[in-house]
Amino acid sequence: MRMRRGYTVAAALTFSVALTVGPAAGASHDTGPAVSGTVVHAEKPWGATVRKDGPGPDDVCNYTKKRPNLQRGSSGPAVQQVQCYLNNAIGANLGEDGQFGSDTQTATRDFQRCAEIPPDGRVGAQTWSFLSFWANSAGAPFC
Asked: pTM for this one?
């Protein structure tokens, strides 16, 4: 892509880079046609060692993409996902049976203490986020 004088480049850096090219504020339009609204994505250009968040080909666990609130008594693929993440994140050695029983609750509390989040033994948005990140990080298991 060729840049012309009077244009600005805005970049947002998260797990991808988005570039939007358009005329700079106060620039006259006689510098050439604006390339407005063009977005270019480049996954992890800095070579991060963390795989993407969420199930997919780079995720260590692929039981489900859903992230419901879970607690003792819950069951199903989301519980299997949590059990798999706990096994990878902290070496919990849980059976991935999809039953949120006392062992899964204890492992969840152990993980929460290690991650320094409130150890309530339930899996909500914050625990899901930390679990997914930790389980998919190089160097796991932690704690």
From this structure: 0.62
